[in-house]
Design brief:
With 220 residues, the chain is mainly α. The chain is 76% helix and 0% strand.
Length: 220
């Protein structure tokens, strides 16, 4: 299930760094809107009192700790090793996230009970959520198979939950729109450039999980 000590430090740091690179635009955006700039963002990130308040917040614990740990253990740690012998690594990367996306459809029932929006709006929002959770699931599945660790997907999941979806529309209306759009573009380009170098199995010890599975013909 990807729970092991060998190579755990790079498995925790490098995938998270890669995810933060992708979020370069939103991070710069947040710093620009902070009255204290980048310094204020860094200070808030290491503020002990803020962390104490977060740890005491049940909703924060659900979103940042419980959901990332449980969902990554189930959909990456447990499901991927079962799919890999039957489908192969490439197909598994795109199949497992479909289950992850469908698992979020319970929000349809939740929103319907709250009666905040019409059914068409609820379905549209749920469809968008299915899309981005599936894409994110493919990314963390790729990380899991390349590193053989579940800690990277858990930390990436927690970070993405804290950031939400990049707000491109807000960036387009920002007074420093050009600089922001440049940071969004650079984040995407750097992510694509660093994706394979930072997930090279060389950093993570032993053999990646995708190399441990039996050939598809003998397994299924």
């Amino acid at each position: 299930m990807g729970v092991r000590l060998e190579g755990v430090v790079p498995a925790a740091v490098l995938p998270l760094l890669l995810t933060m690179v992708f979020y370069l635009g939103p991070l710069v955006h947040s710093a620009m809107d902070n009255t204290e700039g980048f310094t204020g963002e860094l200070l808030s990130a290491v503020d002990v009192q803020s962390w104490r308040l977060c740890v005491g917040d049940v909703v924060w614990l659900r979103n940042q700790v419980v959901a990332p740990v449980t969902e990554e253990l189930v959909f990456r740690g447990a499901m991927l090793p079962m799919l890999l012998p039957c489908t192969g690594p490439t197909a598994a990367v795109f199949m497992a996230p479909l289950f992850f996306g469908v698992a979020h459809f319970h929000h349809i029932v939740e929103q319907r009970r709250l009666r905040k929006d019409s059914m068409s709006v609820i379905l549209l929002v749920s469809g968008m959520q299915f899309l981005y959770t599936t894409v994110f699931g493919a990314f963390t599945a790729f990380i899991f198979m390349k590193t053989g660790h579940v800690v990277g997907p858990v930390l990436c999941h927690s970070f993405c939950n804290s950031q939400g979806l990049p707000d491109i529309s807000s960036a387009l209306q920002h007074p420093q729109r050009s600089a922001l759009l440049f940071s969004y573009l650079m984040g995407l380009l750097l992510f694509l450039v660093l994706l394979f170098p930072l997930t090279d199995p060389f950093f993570y010890g032993a053999i990646p999980i995708c190399s441990l599975v039996a050939p598809a013909a003998s397994a299924c």
